[in-house]
Amino acid sequence: MLVGLSGAAPFSYITNSCDNTVSVIDAASNTATATVNVGSLPFGVAASTDGTRVYVTNYLSNNVSVIDTTTNTVTATVNVGSLPFGIAVNTGGKKAYVANFASNNISVINTTTNTVITGISAGNGPWGIAVNPDEKEIYVANLNSNNISVINTTTYTIMARVNVGNGPWGIAVTPDGKKVFVTNSNSSTVSVINATMNKVVAVINVGNGPWGVAVSPDGKKAYVANSDSNDVSVIDTATNTITTTIKVGSLPCGVIVNPEGTKVYVVNSDSNNVSIIDTATNTVTATVKVGRLPVAIGQFVVPPSPPVFPGYTKPSTDPNHDGLYEDINGNGILDFNDVVADYDNIDWIGENAPVAFFDYNKNGLIDYNDVIKLSDML
User: Fold this and answer.
1) Domains of the chain: which residue ranges?
2) Tens of pLDDT along 85-136?
3) In which order are the strands placed within the sheet that holds 126-131?
4) Which DSSP category does 371 fall into?
5) Is the whole model's pTM more than 0.85, yes or no?
6) What is the DSSP track for 249-286?
7) Are 302 and 53 in contact, with CB atoms under 8 Å apart?
8) Rounded to an integer, what distance in angstroms lies between the CA atom of residue 266 and that of residue 257?
9) Sheet harboring 231-236: ordered strands across?
10) CATH of domain 2-295
């Protein structure tokens, strides 16, 4: 799980299932800088959208640990269903959804009060879970019934069931909310679901025993951790084809992409480490030692917290949840004042803010062409 503060490199929160701990990796130095004690057999990880809290599912404790990322201490424990595994936080950060494997349901946590507000029936053996960026649907991979439950987040009812391959494990949604990628661990395939039709539109052969899956911030690539072949399949999401395969450690489980899309983190359970892949070269550039039998599930990427621009009192916002923070002055809407603020603070953005937030023309730079692009969005 990647979280971080504005202007700072994000941190990875890696669950060590055999140690009952979470390792905190500093992305700037590629070193583990802290260890947090949690419950028994921690598996899933998800963070609040503001990066201040991390939620960890404890499989044998039947609860969720809430970690304060400033102090790296557990500040609350929330009881959920039986054998919780996957967890996801919605875009607004107000709800966390927990897949309870043995209860065959989803616990919905109010993240303000850290209480369970309802339970939702799912399929047989819910495992992986993801939230559509529009916050209207959640997708649950049912490991034992070989299908995906599509759940309405307003009515808490199942809208559709989509049959996929054998042993659906991990699940990830593209940033535009149009595609859902599901790893089928026993079929060695990935099912691609059209999120509008709730229908499988492609099946991709990948490595052996695919578990985790993550989509890049620009939505152009999907990364699949193949547990039995010890590699990562890189998928072009436009053509649904594999463009390359990258060797990593032993029994890769979780996979995550950093907010800039420049690095992929792969959790190797049997190697007790994390491989860091450079997305430009598709090569492993670093390996970080963590605890015993580390695990991660689903798409856990959370960007650094948005900054407060000089002269303003509120942080910038992303009104349409596209990953770009067009509302620079934080008043909740995109208007001409945001264009002025962008123009006046070009140098400040480059020195103090996450580039990906304000690179409106997506050329990898902060320049005056971004101001023009922002103006065109009005």
Assistant:
1) 2-295, 307-378
2) 999 998 778 899 999 999 999 999 999 999 999 999 999 999 999 999 888 9
3) 126-131, 137-142, 147-152, 157-163
4) H
5) yes
6) SSSEEEEEE-TTSSEEEEEETTTTEEEEEETTTTEEEE
7) no
8) 9
9) 210-215, 221-226, 231-236, 241-247
10) 2.130.10.10
